[in-house]
Input
Amino acid sequence: MAIISNLTEITYASQTDRGRQRNVNEDFVYADQLRTRARGGKREWLLLVVADGVGGHLRGEWASKTAVTALITDLPKLLTNAAPGDALRRACEAANDATWREAAAAGLDGSATTLVAALIDDADNLWLANVGDSRAYRVQDGRIQQLTQDHSWVEEQVQLGRMTPEEARTSDQRNIITRSVGFAESVEVDVDGPIPLHAGERIVLSSDGLHDQISDDEIAAVTRAMTPYDAASRLVAAANERGGPDNISVIVCSID
Output
């Protein structure tokens, strides 16, 4: 639980699970407060991150952990002097640089990860950064909105009108991503914000092991009806009940 503004109490919970068909969990999640000090005084932030490693076995596990560790190391320093959106972008670029360089030095070429990060300030504003097909959602007044756009082959086909969203959801090509952290020397990061948050909303971050198995409407219904901890646990359990073919990660954040 984190109280990060004078008006709002924010609660959050995370869950990650290897699923029922994988031997290793290549996902990595982070959810915690950051504190910074700049010329404007002390500030408090809440940082939520989901990363889904690619590259197979230990390569993906290593990549997701390396990228998130670099992100949470650099972001507090960047926030002292840069605007939040710019700081978040630069931290993701630093995560890409660290993952790419360390993979090359260790002979782990091809290691990479998706990354979606949500940064909330002490005035209840949200910034998002995204690379790959892990997602951020907003649940508001019974409606769910995907706030990030997947960087995937099937999403490109949907945008071109060559495939419907329903076809993309069941395509055997849906796990082909077109951007990732650590695969190349540089990366393009999608950043959005500030997005004002309001009481009663939920912010949800997930890896594709969750949202490939659970529909958007189901995510909305579960997160609205339960506490963040219970909702995160229920969503992971539901994905496993449907076969758990991939690693499963979710963070549920409630603006109370």
